[in-house]
Amino acid sequence: MAYQWDFTPVFANADLLAQGLVNTLKVTGTALACGLALGLVLALLRLSRLRLAAWPAGLIIEVFRTTPPLVQLFWFFFALPLIAGIEMTPFLAAAVTFSIQSSAFFAEVFRAGIVSIERGQWEGARAIGMTHGQALRRIVLPQAVKRMIPAFMERAIELMKTTTLVATISYADLLFAANEIAQKTFRPLETLTVAALIYFVVITAFSLFARRLERRLAVSGESTVH
Amino acid sequence: MAQWDFSSVLANSDALLVGAVGTLRIFAICLVAGLGLGLLIGLGRYSRRRVFYWPATAFVEFFRNTPVLVQIVWFYFALPILAPFTISPLAAAALGISLNSAAFSAEIYRGGIQSIERGQWDGARALGMSFLQAMRRIILPQALKRMTPALTNRAIEIFKMSTLASAVAYVELLQQAKLIASLNFNPIEAYTAVAVIFFVFLWPLVQLTYLLERRLARDE
Fold first, then answer.
1. Which residues of A touch B66 (CB under 8 A)?
2. A135-165 pLDDT, tens per residue?
3. Could you give the ipTM of this predicted complex?
4. Which of A132, A181, A198, A225 lies at a CB distance of 3.0 to 4.6 Å from A112, suitable for a disulfide?
């Protein structure tokens, strides 16, 4: 059975795929920005000597690292609106889920990075009269962040792949758009193959960039954390 | 404010049990197939022969750089057009998750094998062992020990990924929660229950991984 490949229906709907890719990047970008910020906060809370701060942060990190992201997404999309009495859109549910989910992973990267900075750096900063917050902001974090870049890149790539889950709650990301086109044109093989290739190209480009950056950091003699 | 009431979930515990069996089944299949195939591909990535190295590398790059849900959907909706057979939700999901896990675990195996000192190879060869004997008796046993935390991590990822099978309507825990939620109008309790089940099951495994990592760091 020789199947007749026909990509014209896919190209005819290229605008839908393009919009889907834009939406994928929108969710990824939002979750990345919020996830990094929240991850830093969680890491600092977890490193705090105050149990009241360290404990809840640890719990959030463990829960979101341990449960499947799709379960989290369904929970935020179907359960949270009923509990909180709010309207939930697929985009909002995805942004909230993936922000918190990725923040749990980012928090562990931040923590490893901060812990990897030698005690002497802290002591030196304190010795010249900096407060804890100043030492963290001006001395420790700038050095730590550099070591964390490869791990951040890896997580960002994971995040982009995870965002495909939003297709299951009907957010029009690239996968969802491909599914729509496949059903409309009866060409699932061509459409889904093209969608897979688009993901492959975007993610490969990003990971090549990440690898190059990592090599440059390695050349500058910087150790990295994972 | 919603009133939490888990009785409607408990009343459907038999449905959840069916889901749990489905989750464990696909987890077991993907664990064995993914980590097994991963070893073969990892050896291919380690090989200096181009016939092994290039296909293994292409496989790893492709499956690491595309989302697993896209792979599952592709196997479910696109593959049957090329292949002369129908494909079940279990087969499609298991294929996607296994191949994806094979690509990731291949890199773990390769890294583990590469981390073994050259002297171990030289010693084994000096004793007259063939490449495969040295690999099986000397290199792999040592490398596996170093890889255990990373492989345990992969197993946890596979368990979490098994929920994606619900996207092609395979009966597992999340799919059953969807069913219970839509029949009883209790998404809060149904999805919370499933989240708790996953957490209770996976948390000890995650702690075990931490323990293995710490022990390995101390031993080396």
1. 161, 196, 199-200, 203
2. 999 999 999 988 898 899 999 999 999 999 9
3. 0.90
4. A225
Amino acid at B152: T
- Domains in chain A: boundaries: 8-219
Does pLDDT of A180 surpass 80?
yes
Asked if residues A139 and A130 have their Cβ atoms less than 8 Å apart, the reply is yes
DSSP assignment, residue B163? G
Q: What is the pLDDT of residues B158-201, one digit of tens each?
A: 999 999 999 999 999 999 999 999 998 889 999 999 999 999 99
Instruction: Compare all CA atoms of chain B with the CA of A72 and give the residue at the minimum distance.
Output: B195
Using a CB–CB cutoff of 8 Å, tell me whether A211 touches chain B.
no
User: Which tokens hold the place of B117?
Assistant: 């000192």
Protein fold of B22-175 = MetI-like fold (1.10.3720)
3-state secondary structure string, chain B?
CCCCCCHHHHCCHHHHHHHHHHHHHHHHHHHHHHHHHHHHHHHHHHCCCHHHHHHHHHHHHHHHCCCHHHHHHHHHHHHHHHCCCCCCHHHHHHHHHHHHHHHHHHHHHHHHHHCCCHHHHHHHHHCCCCHHHHHHHHHHHHHHHHHHHHHHHHHHHHHHHHHHHHHHCCCCHHHHHHHHHHHHCCHHHHHHHHHHHHHHHHHHHHHHHHHHHHHHHHHC
* CATH number 1.10.3720.10 is the correct assignment for the domain at A8-219: yes
In tens, the pLDDT along B18-71 reads 999 999 999 999 999 999 999 999 999 999 999 999 999 999 999 999 999 999
Radius of gyration of the CA atoms of chain A, in A:
21
User: Given an 8 Å threshold on Cβ–Cβ distance, is A162 in contact with B187?
Assistant: no
